[in-house]
Predict the structure.
Amino acid sequence: MSTSAFEKLDKQAIALDLEISGRRVELTGVAAYEKQSNLGPTLRIHVDDPAGEFDLILREDCWNGKIEEVHQAGCRYRISLTPSDLVPYPS
């Protein structure tokens, strides 16, 4: 039985590298692996940023990015996202 690539990230601190408006932004969040009825297996990364907290949700069946194992700023993993990876989803 194969396990989810996202499942190993549950409760882990994740470094996020994003490109927003042509600018590289680095954030840190805590991941939660979830199986949602309307989205399937997901990784919800809660970011508590001084500008405002938010959740970033990655759908396992739609996301093809890389998960890198690193040891930086208290994080064990890093995920890099491009603008095409980001799609607003109403809460």
User: Anything to note?
Assistant: The chain has one domain: 7-83. The CA atoms of residues 15 and 78 lie 5 Å apart. The first strand starts at residue 13 and ends at 20.
